[in-house]
Amino acid sequence: MMVGRSSFGILIGAAVGTLFLVPAHGLAQWLPFEVDPCSGAVIYMSQLEGLIRCAESGYAPDQYTLGVMYANGMRVAEDDAQAVLWFRMAAEQGHASAQHKLGLMYGEGEGVPEDDAEAVRWYRLAAEQGYAPAQGTLGAMYDNGSGVLEDDAEALRWYQLSAGQGFAAAQYNLGIMYEHGDAVPEDDGEAVRWYRLSADQGFASGQYNLGVMYRNGYGVPQDDGEAVRWYQLSAEQGFAAAQYNLGVMYAHGYGVPEDDGEAVRWYRLAADQGYANAQFNLGVMYSRGEGITEDDAEAVRWYRLAADQGNALAQTNLGLMYANGYGVPEDLVFSYMWFNLSAAQGNETAQSNGEIIERYMTREQISEAQRLSLEWIETHPQDGATEDADSSP
Predict the structure, then answer these.
(1) Long-range own/partner contacts, residues 233-237 (CB < 8 A, 24 or more apart)
(2) Tens of pLDDT along 125-142?
(3) CA 290 to chain centre
(4) How far apart are CA 358 and CA 38, in angstroms?
């Protein structure tokens, strides 16, 4: 039989077909292979081995990735010093993400001594390449005067560059600049615009601030329903101030049906994070038996947590609990101490109450209460523990 071109085609096809007859176990003896991103060659190694090989050969993207892995303990033991090592290698090659990460390590003192000026240096290198997160972070450094002289105009400039690229944290910070009139004319409408852009990306702080703007009618028509919507979105991400404000909305029926049980639930979530106003309000709910079984001892516990953070209202109520023996043994010395601490912050109720119980105290008791007050102040440095939130019952 004459063999033509088509016959060779069949023979070639048959020869190729024989490859499928190789037993499967014969192929399984080989390690998984991948293309080496450093050279393009086919290599046989694990993914981590390949990553380390490329990083050690000077490939900046893999140096950065390895830094991230060490910083977060991903597939390797967490090691901040190793993270800094790899971030620095990539950063010195101009890798913007690595420059930003290295700045963050200096800013937090992780793997290196804390050094805001060095952090700023690396942020700037990344920011000047147009890297939005670094631009936003550099803006924050100028905003707070960390590592550089405080400069609202420079903060604004970097926030605008970052926010213009859609970076949510910078959009939020730009909203704050407009709300407070820092380096720009005060403009609630512009503040709302930037908060909304941030909030629409799911940024919890932006959602919270947008809720505050709706609650108070700043830059938008007052709308409790919208306030609740934005508080809820933020609160569900665990943002304590939003959880607290959502509790206030439920406690008073603002934008939602009044529901003390829901108020307690949201107060507790914020209180468990150490949010002093929420701790105080949760104490009030226990004291009154609203949304929860009345329990003076629990009320005292929550008042004390807030009072120890310097919350003047909680200090006043804790003084009342000691004066009356509610949830704690009656003790005029401790009562006077808490009234004294609250009165020092300008709380007039505490001042009046302190003057009343002083009539029933000996000179020695008053002296002891004053000593305890001074001792408390020395061991509890205050930094503004009564948060700026909506309201309290």
Answers:
(1) 233/199, 233/202, 233/204, 233/207, 234/204, 234/205, 234/207, 234/208, 235/266, 235/269, 237/202, 237/204, 237/207
(2) 999 999 999 999 999 999
(3) 31
(4) 79
Location of structure tokens 């407009």: 178
pLDDT tens-place string over residues 3-37:
343 333 322 332 233 222 322 333 333 333 444 55
Inter-residue contact 236 to 217 (CB < 8 Å): no
Give the per-residue pLDDT at 88.
98
Q: What pLDDT sits at residue 375? A: 96
What's the angle, vertex CA 339, arms to CA 335 and CA 345, rounded to 5? 155
One-letter amino acid at 176 equals: I
> How many CA atoms, within 13 angstroms, populate the side-chain half-sphere of residue 360?
12
Average pLDDT for 108-136: 98
**pLDDT surpasses 60 at 389:** no
Q: How far is CA 98 from CA 56, 78, 121, 148, in A?
A: 16, 17, 13, 21
Q: What tokens does 56 get?
A: 């050690």
Query: Per-residue pLDDT tens for 202-216?
Result: 999 999 999 999 999
Residue whose C-alpha is closest to residue 207's, from 194, 221, 216: 194
Q: How far apart are CA 100 and CA 224, in angstroms?
A: 40
44: which strand partners?
Answer: 33
Higher pLDDT, 48 or 203: 203
Tokens of 268: 């507790």
